[in-house]
């Protein structure tokens, strides 16, 4: 028990000295050390973001084509839309997988991580509606 407390104190001191004197509380550092690294967190965000995107795209597309035709073409388009988005999401993950072990646990990357995390979730939540809306506009025009 005593060893764990000293280890936590050392983590706090290291975080405080490493980040230009920024004050990190004991709970911030211990919580961070238990959560893992930026690489794994971004990988998890990308995976869950893809699941959300896929679910929303299916829901929005199926709602849009409901009762319009018995063709398999809209379902094929749905598969293409889901497959086409994977490289975009994978790009976010690639940016983080090249970090060293030390960088992967460095709290200095928190702002950059949050920026990419917000982009992943905005794309996952908004893109299905934008794509379906664009197809709807094109179908009205042509």
Structural summary, described in words:
With 142 residues, the chain is an all-alpha fold. The protein has 2 domains: 1-35; 36-141, no CATH class. The chain is built from 6 helices and no strands. The protein has helices spanning 2-18, 26-35, 38-65, 73-97, 101-104, 110-141. The chain is elongated and about 55 Å long.
Largest sheet: none
Summed over residues and divided by their number, the pLDDT gives a mean of 78
**Radius of gyration, in angstroms, nearest whole number:** 22 Å
Topology, number of strands: 0
Write a brief structural summary:
The protein is mostly helical and 142 residues long. It has helices at residues 2-18, 26-35, 38-65, 73-97, 101-104, 110-141.
Short descriptors:
142 residues; mainly alpha; 6 helices; disordered N terminus
Question: How are the secondary structure elements laid out?
Answer:
Elements: H1 2-18, H2 26-35, H3 38-65, H4 73-97, H5 101-104, H6 110-141
């Amino acid at each position: 028990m005593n060893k764990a407390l000293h280890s936590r104190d050392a983590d706090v001191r290291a975080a405080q000295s490493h980040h230009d004197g920024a004050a990190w509380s004991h709970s911030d550092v211990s919580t961070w050390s238990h959560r893992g690294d930026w690489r794994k967190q971004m990988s998890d965000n990308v995976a869950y973001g893809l699941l959300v995107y896929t679910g929303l795209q299916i829901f929005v597309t199926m709602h849009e084509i409901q009762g319009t035709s018995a063709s398999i073409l809209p379902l094929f388009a749905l598969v293409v839309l889901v497959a086409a988005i994977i490289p975009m999401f994978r790009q976010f993950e690639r940016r983080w997988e090249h970090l060293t072990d030390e960088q992967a646990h460095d709290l200095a990357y928190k702002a950059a991580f949050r920026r990419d995390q917000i982009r992943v979730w905005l794309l996952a939540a908004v893109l299905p509606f934008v794509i379906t809306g664009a197809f709807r506009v094109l179908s009205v025009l042509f």
